[in-house]
Amino acid sequence: MTTISKGQREVNKEQYLEKYPNKMTKIYYKRVFDFALELEDEYNKDLFQFDLEQIKNVLMKFKTSGQAIEVYGRVISSYIKWAMETNLHTGTNPLENVGVAWFREIGIEPSSLYFSKHRIETIENDCVNAQDAIIIRLLFEGIEGKEAIEIRELKKDDILEDESCLNIGGNKIRVEEKTINLAIKAAKQKVYRKKNGSMEHRENINDYNELTDNKFIIRSSITQLRSFDECVNKAVIYRRLKMLSEVLGVENLSTKNLTRSGQIYMAMKIMQSKGQYTLTNDDYKRIALRFDINNFYSIKKYCTVESVKEIYGDFLEQGEVQ
Known about the structure:
Strand order of the largest sheet: 1-2-3
Distance between the termini: 55 Å
Largest sheet: 3 strands, antiparallel
Number of strands: 5
Low-confidence stretches: none
Strand content: under 5%
Radius of gyration: 23 Å
Mean pLDDT: 91
Order of helices and strands: HHHHHHHHHEEEHEEHHHHH
Shape: globular
């Protein structure tokens, strides 16, 4: 097998991407290649030279549903075919005769990756700090922004209780009553219990931190404060979710999985209102608009009728679902 330098591997990917005039397609495919970079270095070969087990190792890094894994696998297969057509690769395509079942075995299915509305509420109820519970709730409601900026910059006076809305960047976003109540509770919180209240008090070490009293809902402890009037750093959001995941024993508790769980819940409510197990492009556009996603096609990979039913069952026959 010919050894291909790292620089040449990059050139190969660039030449392959020249086939696609659409900018979004190039970005999407490049993301797949980026996941393979570390393993390309480890195996000292180009992705199109990988055997089936090595390709499997790439796909496992995505940690997503089997349906999405299949899409990523087809991108890799297309790259291998291109390499064969251009005589860069004289071997075979390991993915040529691979079926759907193989991809599904690699994927993490939605029922374990994403959360039902009831599961979200259970996690929230297990949060000692409203400051933590509101983060989970806002992500589920589709309020995030880049690096969670919409959560970090949410102010106490952005709570429009009478209208059941939050002011997000000058726009009134309608949310559930429980979201409003959690936001109010978080805004009033003055003391933050460490490790979700499970930290033992020791001499000279408190089991709590006092929160700064500024205009924001999510606030840092006084000891961590950079500037009294600043919103929290993005790391605070991610750190609190990581802590909850460890303390509560909840796997896959990430910003991405929480927002996707909210999208799946919204898809369920849309189908429930129609009385049909169908999702149209207009339905996906509604979800994308709510969750501030530019391209609704990306939602289709994980937010399907099948994935919704995996989490909520045959909900049309069940009546009201939580």
